[in-house]
């Protein structure tokens, strides 16, 4: 029975590690996306850092990416940037690849 218990604990640990990694990749992706948007809006380096953090925080409002997309579309439109939801989604996908690559290369 201990072999089964050991396997169960190993799978639970693996699942927890996978979930933590996914969370970290998603947070990095959101930060990169915030930096991308800040450059488009012409923000200063200090403003860029603060905005990237705000984008990461926006992801905690609801499950999924809709809260982040809504924030970026609203902020960029207010700043006079011509962008729509599909444009932000494309940037989100691009930054997800970059974030994942960053974690893979770090390991």
Question: Any overview of this molecule?
Answer:
The chain starts with a helix and ends with a helix. Helix 1 (2-41) crosses helix 4 (85-106). With 107 residues, it is mainly alpha-helical. The model has no long low-confidence stretch (mean pLDDT 91). The chain has helices at residues 2-41, 45-58, 66-78, 85-106. It has a single domain (2-106), classed as Domain of unknown function DUF1476 (Major Prion Protein, Orthogonal Bundle), CATH 1.10.790.20. It has four helices and no strands. It holds the Pfam family ATPaseInh_sub_z.
- For the record, give the distance between the C-alpha atoms at the N and C termini, rounded to a whole number: 34 Å
Can you identify the CATH class?
Mainly Alpha
In DSSP terms, counting alpha (H) and pi (I) runs of 4 or more, how many helices?
A: 4
CATH topology assignment: Major Prion Protein
CATH architecture assignment name: Orthogonal Bundle
What's the main sheet like?
none
The overall number of domains is 1
CATH superfamily: Domain of unknown function DUF1476
Helix content: over 70%
Mean pLDDT: 91
The backbone outline, from C-alpha atoms, is: elongated
Structural class: mainly alpha
Low-confidence stretches: none
- Whole-angstrom Rg: 17 Å
Order of helices and strands: HHHH
Strand content range: under 5%
Strands, count: 0
